Structures are given as C-alpha cells and as structure tokens.
C-alpha cells in the first residue's frame, strides 16, 4: 500500500536536488528514500549548468511534514548542495517516452496520423513495428500511449519527470 493511500494530506511533490557529481551519490539518495520507506514515483538525474554538479528531479507522494523530513535528510548527505521543492512554483515539466508499437503496412498510415497530431516523431521503422518518440507533459504522453495501445505496444520506456522553474529560479532562496 502506498503512502498516498494511508494519508489524505499526501500529494504528488516535485523536488529538485543539486548534488556533487561523484560516484555513489545517487545510490546514497535512493538509499535514503528506501530506509525511510518513501516511495519514489519518478527520478531523473543528469548534468546541470554547473560543472561537477548534477541535477536530480524526484517525484514523491508526501505530506508537508514528510517532505520537510525528506529535505532535512537529503541535506545530511554530504554531497547534496541544495534541495528545492518546486511543487507549487510555475514550472516547465516534461517527460520523454519511446514507444515501439506493432505496425503492419495496413496500420502505418493511421499510426503516422496519430503521431503527427501529438507532434511526436517516428524515429525507427522495422518490418513489423514503428518506434515513436514523444516529449511533453505527462498527460500528453499518457494520452498517446493509450491511443496507441490498441495497435499493440511492444516496448515502452519513459524518462520520468524533468522540471525547471519558469523565469528566475523562484525556489532557489528556499532551503
């Protein structure tokens, strides 16, 4: 049973964690969540604009109290330099998905039309399948997946949420 099912005041929260780009840091962060029994819904990590600093976007179901505890625990990790809750900030949030769908010649035109409607791209074509790349909001990605499902999804991978506050970094002053 997830934490969200146990507590009515839990909601989906987005944290941005800046950390030193060192071996083992990601493992330490994920172990912190595991030890505290916090479920990570989505986690993405990559280089940031600052050399030797990585940016992690974590989506977790949490209450205000749990989120505060998570932030405090993250700051205890020596390689974490900043934790920002951007849940309530005006942010650009995107996800990337690659979808390999069953596609015989009779269905290719219909699939292409759907892909075009969603402003996605066909990035690979094989004898019996097409691979589609879509970038957008989670709802947009979910919608395309559901529309393609009747054709037969052979394989699917998603990045999880990546997020950035619009304009000036409003959350930067918060700890």
Radius of gyration: 19 Å
Strand content: 35-45%
CATH architecture term of the largest domain: 2-Layer Sandwich
Quick one: how many beta strands? 9
Morphology call: elongated
* Cα-to-Cα separation, first versus last residue: 30 Å
How many domains is the backbone divided into?
A: 2
Low-confidence stretches: 1-5, 170-175
Elements, N to C (H/E)? HEHEEHEEHEEHEE
Q: Characterize the biggest β-sheet.
A: 5 strands, antiparallel
Q: Give the C-level CATH assignment of the largest domain.
A: Alpha Beta
Question: Can you tell me about this structure?
Answer:
It is a single chain. This protein is α+β, with helices and mostly antiparallel strands. The protein folds into two domains: 3-89, Alpha-Beta Plaits, CATH 3.30.70.260; 92-162, Alpha-Beta Plaits, CATH 3.30.70. The chain has five helices and nine strands, in the order H-E-H-E-E-H-E-E-H-E-E-H-E-E. It has helices spanning 3-6, 25-35, 64-76, 105-117, 138-148, and strands at 11-20, 40-47, 53-62, 80-85, 91-102, 121-125, 129-136, 153-158, 162-165. Strands 5, 6, 7, 8 and 9 form a five-stranded antiparallel β-sheet that branches. It has a four-stranded antiparallel β-sheet with strand order 2-3-1-4, with helices on one face. Strand 6 and strand 7 form a beta hairpin.
């Amino acid at each position: 049973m997830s934490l969200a099912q146990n507590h009515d005041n839990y909601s989906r929260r987005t944290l941005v964690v800046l950390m030193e780009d060192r071996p083992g840091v990601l493992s330490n962060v994920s172990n912190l969540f595991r030890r505290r029994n916090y479920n990570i819904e989505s986690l993405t990590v990559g280089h940031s604009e600052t050399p030797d600093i990585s940016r992690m976007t974590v989506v977790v179901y949490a209450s205000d109290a749990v989120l505060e505890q998570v932030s405090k625990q993250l700051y205890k990790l020596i390689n974490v330099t900043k934790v920002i809750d951007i849940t309530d900030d005006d942010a650009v949030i995107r996800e990337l998905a690659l979808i390999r769908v069953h596609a015989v010649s009779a269905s290719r035109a219909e699939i292409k039309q759907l892909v075009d409607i969603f402003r996605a791209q066909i990035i690979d074509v094989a004898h019996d399948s097409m691979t589609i790349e879509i970038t957008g909001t989670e709802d947009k990605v979910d919608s395309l997946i559901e529309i393609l499902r009747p054709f037969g999804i052979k394989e699917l991978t998603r990045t999880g949420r990546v997020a950035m506050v619009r304009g000036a970094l409003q959350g930067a002053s918060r700890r």
